[in-house]
């Protein structure tokens, strides 16, 4: 009897050590864009026009393109692994079992729907694929197969990741020629759409919800190349463009305020703010602190071109581009997405802190 107890205690301690916490979830449900998409455009094979669906995307871990916009795994893959869950299948994958998780995120997704961009005169320049409201509908369509008639109890024990949302809402007008001042005017609407979506998910039964802010877009080689300036005052101490990062800071400030309001309305819900901005900024500033060597250089792109190995006409997956041999040393994979090594570090920063407030693990 005593031996059995010792063995049982030993097993529990081993489980805690392996996963870092006794905390468990029955599933993870993710919403978002290319930062966390696990292949919703590639469920029947990646289309030939999709550069992120070509090698060397996916090569480091999967040995093939999966529709993930990096060299291997993304944040939600590491979160699933931590909690002993299978990698999240894309929600468009027919025949998949979604009881342990589903990923509604899709490349190009925005917070706002197509009508919003059409009203800005950007209808022809954006390919809007599965905005947030649509992703919630996809999830609702899956719910009968996930939890039947007892969804509240099931989803109470699931982890929800909502975003980041906003990145593509800003990319579209900025690349379409709108000024940063004009684009800042859209931020309150975008935040309202995010917080309303979070409330909808709470109504469906979500209790533990991570809502990440946007990344420091002024640190991405795509922006640094397209909007390079001869005026050194346009750059911060990390070599990032101040004006574009100010947009990210504004978005994140309003998002935190909006989440505080939602939290006050639903005290039983656990809202966690995922701080992409602070961590990625620190990774640019001090890559070595995160086990990396390069902050602003692209691993997969136009090697040796410009300051960042980036050329918009020779992007990763296109003719003229190549991948570095040591992606584990890079923060940035292709100019706008991060590497698997960076995503692993971010997942850890959300799980244990300090880059999630509060941390996922309690």
From TrEMBL:
Keywords of the record: Glycoprotein, Hydrolase, Signal
Keyword Glycoprotein: yes
Signal peptide limits: 1-22
Family annotation (InterPro entries): GDSL, SGNH_plant_lipase-like
GO molecular function: hydrolase activity, acting on ester bonds
Family annotation (Pfam families): Lipase_GDSL (PF00657)
Family from the record: Belongs to the 'GDSL' lipolytic enzyme family.
Name under which the protein is recorded: Esterase
């Amino acid at each position: 009897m005593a031996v059995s107890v010792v063995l049982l205690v030993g097993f529990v301690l081993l489980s805690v050590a392996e996963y870092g916490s006794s905390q468990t979830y029955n599933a993870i449900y993710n919403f978002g864009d290319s930062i966390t998409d696990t292949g919703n455009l590639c469920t029947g094979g990646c289309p030939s026009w999709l550069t992120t669906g070509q090698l060397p995307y996916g090569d480091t871990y999967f040995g093939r393109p999966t529709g993930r916009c990096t060299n291997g795994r993304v944040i939600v893959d590491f979160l699933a692994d931590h909690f002993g869950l299978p990698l999240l299948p894309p929600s468009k994958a027919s025949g998949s079992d979604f009881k342990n998780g589903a990923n509604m995120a899709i490349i190009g997704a925005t917070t706002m729907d197509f009508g919003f961009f059409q009203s800005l005169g950007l209808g022809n320049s954006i390919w809007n694929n599965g905005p947030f409201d649509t992703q919630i509908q996809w999830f609702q369509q899956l719910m009968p197969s996930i939890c039947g008639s007892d969804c509240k109890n099931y989803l109470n024990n699931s982890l929800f990741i909502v975003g980041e949302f906003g990145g593509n809402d800003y990319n579209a007008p900025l690349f379409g020629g709108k000024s940063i001042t004009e684009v800042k005017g859209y931020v309150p609407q975008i935040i309202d759409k995010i917080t309303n979506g979070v409330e909808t998910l709470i109504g469906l039964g979500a209790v533990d919800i991570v809502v990440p802010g946007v990344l420091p877009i002024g640190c991405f080689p795509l922006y640094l190349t397209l909007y390079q300036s001869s005026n050194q005052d346009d750059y911060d101490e990390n070599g990032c463009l101040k004006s574009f990062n100010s947009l990210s800071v504004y978005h994140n400030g309003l998002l935190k305020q909006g989440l505080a309001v939602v939290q006050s309305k639903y005290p039983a819900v656990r809202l966690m703010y995922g701080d992409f901005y602070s961590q990625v900024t620190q990774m640019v500033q001090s890559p070595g602190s995160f086990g990396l060597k390069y902050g602003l250089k692209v691993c997969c792109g136009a090697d040796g071109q410009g300051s960042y190995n980036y050329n918009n006409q020779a992007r990763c997956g296109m003719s003229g581009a190549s991948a570095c041999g040591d992606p584990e040393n890079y923060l940035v994979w292709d100019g706008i997405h991060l590497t698997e090594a960076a995503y692993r570090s971010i997942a850890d920063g959300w799980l244990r802190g300090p880059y999630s407030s509060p941390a996922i693990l309690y």
